[in-house]
Amino acid sequence: MNEIAAFTANTLNTHTYTNTGTTLLPNWLKRCAENTPRQVAVSTREVSWTFADLDQQASELAQQFATLGIQEGSRVGVLASNGLPFIACVHALMRLGAILVPLNVRLTLDEQLWLLQDVRAMALITDEHYTIRADEITHHSPALTRGTAVWDASSDRVRLQGVAMSPTAPLRAEIDLSAIQSIMYTSGTTGMPKGVMVTYGMQWWNALGSALNLGHQPEDCWLLCMPLFHIGGLSILIKNVIYGIRIAVYEKFDAQVINQALREQQVTIISVVTVMLQRMLAALDAEQGDGRYPTWLRCVLLGGGPAPRTLLEDCARRAVPVVQSYGLTESCSQAVTLSPRDALRKLGSAGRPLLPVQLRIMHEDVVAQPNQAGVICLKGPSITGGYDHRPEATASTIQDGWLATGDIGYVDEEGYLYVLDRRSDLIISGGENVYPAEIEAALLSHPEVIEAGVCGEADAQWGQVPIAFVHLQAGSALTMEALLEYVSTRLARFKQPRRIYLVAELPRNSSGKLLRRELNKLLPAASTQEPM
Amino acid sequence: MNEIAAFTANTLNTHTYTNTGTTLLPNWLKRCAENTPRQVAVSTREVSWTFADLDQQASELAQQFATLGIQEGSRVGVLASNGLPFIACVHALMRLGAILVPLNVRLTLDEQLWLLQDVRAMALITDEHYTIRADEITHHSPALTRGTAVWDASSDRVRLQGVAMSPTAPLRAEIDLSAIQSIMYTSGTTGMPKGVMVTYGMQWWNALGSALNLGHQPEDCWLLCMPLFHIGGLSILIKNVIYGIRIAVYEKFDAQVINQALREQQVTIISVVTVMLQRMLAALDAEQGDGRYPTWLRCVLLGGGPAPRTLLEDCARRAVPVVQSYGLTESCSQAVTLSPRDALRKLGSAGRPLLPVQLRIMHEDVVAQPNQAGVICLKGPSITGGYDHRPEATASTIQDGWLATGDIGYVDEEGYLYVLDRRSDLIISGGENVYPAEIEAALLSHPEVIEAGVCGEADAQWGQVPIAFVHLQAGSALTMEALLEYVSTRLARFKQPRRIYLVAELPRNSSGKLLRRELNKLLPAASTQEPM
């Protein structure tokens, strides 16, 4: 038997192999409907749908979509509020292998038109709240196929109005993890929004990474009051069917309503941003109870930017199980999360990367030392592979698999992330990301504006609001009022500057780059005109 | 903006993309050591190791392995009892990207030699209990590199005796899910054992599928008293570091010890086979308590063949949270599991496939109807891609991604699997799979044996034991005693027939195929000689 050792590792090349190029899973919703058909999947104010209901809904709406010509790979804009039509659309598109492109409902007509064109959408689906906007959009883009998804109380189903079902539509029983589930638009330092490619695999890895960190209980109920057109909300719809748990979906955030829901719906997990949690606690105090939540609420997942320490301490006092997290569209929501067991010991930290995620801080192109601040970089299967049809943006953002977020932070000796600042120029207003470059571009599109700079200003209600500084053409008589009016059709309301200041020049570095962090210094005396 | 609709789905081929060919994750153990360094990872009778301990242990042992020449892709036999040396070896090999080949400690010298040769092992690592066997093995295979891993109480570390560490060994910080983690030998209907390729990805998908079904609680403790050389035991070592939970490892199964451990170690999950659970309940009754387990025991995961209904009903009476499951080496342990919420409603069923798994029953090459029996087939990323260097066996077992298990069962209208019989000829003795063809081959290797047939006989203690029927050469004076003695060096004790019957001929079908199911009919009168 001497020949045994003749086969050394070096003579074998079979130590890795790949079964197939892609990983196929059974469709998540379909599987839930088979496992637990009678369990409640989604509850809203109007209805409770079981997994069997949701599954049937997805198939039927998919058959209507097929009639519209929607098929594998089709890019479909969805403009709808948080409700049954949106939820049904998400699952129906998955059933066809079509790509969801959710539209931020707060965007202006111009912004939505630009986005639909940029993503090469072939159809636009709205709910009944956005039919007027849909009219406007299709007036400008008549070739866009249009559908209106409406919940019909009598059948308890969402239907596309006036569209027959295609019974022969090729519905997919499997999910290919490498396929794109959605394209989510987000801006960057460059100003123009870019479409982040979100694959099924990213959703899967994010959901599983979160479950390994927070624990998974088949009886969990996750409350969804974040917009479904952002990754933070959408990813809960997906966890719904990966975990097979119940979600309670709210159209809008109302602190009193949410506080009541936490009790009445036996909610165990809720995702919120700072401003929501602050309002919830204020509403809780107004109730004059004991200022606490029920014990079954096991996780308040807090995202959307660094939380004030006072808020975290208030939560600790009330035993609110707040779990800080850090994530972005490119990481399919949370990527770094403070485990509940570290909540008090590491107060103020965003925690440690979820299992699929690797984290490092880059300082001047070198991996930073512990406690040394730099750019937060992420890698792993829950991180996007890039931006849709923007190879340059992809190449400049992702190198060797590492995504440079642009956000600034450091890790301590134990590897816990502390986010110092979202991307240096990013303004977070009521949980929405506001990109100064995008506002500046809108201001600069006015022929009399020569320079424009935008930064955030602290605001008690929204966390931050954008303010702008402009330098006008010599002799211009443009009023700031008229300029605000001008940008109001070009920018969603939450992006419109609270005030615009007229200045003689903007702070720039030696190479002419705008120094947005210096803009605030212009405030006390520099304005030559009263702000609006 | 009319050009929007010009970009239809058909003109885009970017709706799927793959980031890279393989999925890389941070090393699971390393990640646990970073997340929760001070949390207990493994407790045995002797020690408790934190995740930091286990991580350091893995790195140090890997550096000793590197000195022996073990490297990426090396195939390394491990022959050790359930204990710290085995556990340390598993993680050290992962750190090097080397392939674990666990040896069943009950196999004979000949069987182990054959297996090491078949797998092209370059090294054999044993613990101190198997040094004599290691001497025998290396006597026959002198080129096999050998190491003895021993736990040293003073340093509280497992060390290879007399081997220095290679500080420059290339330790891997990442795990490639497509790489082979272990090769696990299992027999089939063909008689000779085959090496099942078990990838990191199979382990990952199995662990996550299980967590989604059973729930995952970061405070879980999983009791491991199954042999580590089988997939059922090994997969718990991997869940240990994927979940980041504590495991309590026992060298041997002793019902009283395990019952005590469930209380004292705050065990929440235990994996057992039927015979173990029966003994545990008997021991529980002997204690004259209330005949119940602590409430924190939330899952008794029961594998290793169909469980008797009386046992399941006994468990229901005692509120023992028994969860039936079905799996095999090729499916990286459990593939089908009865969710706790269905335990009573579907008593006797093995449940529904875990999330990554697809299940179907094939009856005469057609997918069976509900309630129609046939061969159980499995598909998904937790199912093996095949047998090591056995393309024919792989091709005949796996077709279009579907693994034909050979086991017989049916699914009901709700998709719940009922296992009627493990592979028709398979004998399960004390949780060990015993393959008649392998025993028959050993009997037939005796020059005076013309025909041999083996089947199982019910046994109160072991569930089943093998019995054999032989047809001898005319004029042979071979006694059954001598024949038993003959096979005892060729077959592990649990494979040795309890009795051998001398018969004039064996039941065969028209094409001469042995009908093992008919063998039992020979029992009452057919034996021409008293059994031994």
TrEMBL record, chains A, B:
Q: Which Gene3D superfamilies match?
A: 3.30.300.30, N-terminal domain of ligase-like
Q: Which residues form the AMP-dependent synthetase/ligase domain?
A: 30-387
Q: Which domain of life is it from?
A: Bacteria
Q: For this protein, what is any one GO molecular function term?
A: ATP binding
Q: Name one GO biological process term.
A: menaquinone biosynthetic process
Name the EC number(s): 6.2.1.26
Give the EC class as a word.
ligase
Pathway membership of this protein?
Quinol/quinone metabolism; 1,4-dihydroxy-2-naphthoate biosynthesis; 1,4-dihydroxy-2-naphthoate from chorismate: step 5/7; Quinol/quinone metabolism; menaquinone biosynthesis
Q: Which Pfam families match?
A: AMP-binding (PF00501), AMP-binding_C (PF13193)
Catalyzed chemical reaction(s): 2-succinylbenzoate + ATP + CoA = 2-succinylbenzoyl-CoA + AMP + diphosphate
Sorted alphabetically, the keyword list is: ATP-binding, Ligase, Menaquinone biosynthesis, Nucleotide-binding
Domain AMP-binding enzyme C-terminal, chain residue ranges per copy: 438-513
The job of this chain, per UniProt, is described as: Converts 2-succinylbenzoate (OSB) to 2-succinylbenzoyl-CoA (OSB-CoA).
Which NCBIfam families does the record associate with it? Answer: menE, PRK03640.1
Q: Which family does it belong to?
A: Belongs to the ATP-dependent AMP-binding enzyme family. MenE subfamily.
Entry protein name: 2-succinylbenzoate--CoA ligase
> Where does this protein come from, organism-wise?
Dictyobacter arantiisoli
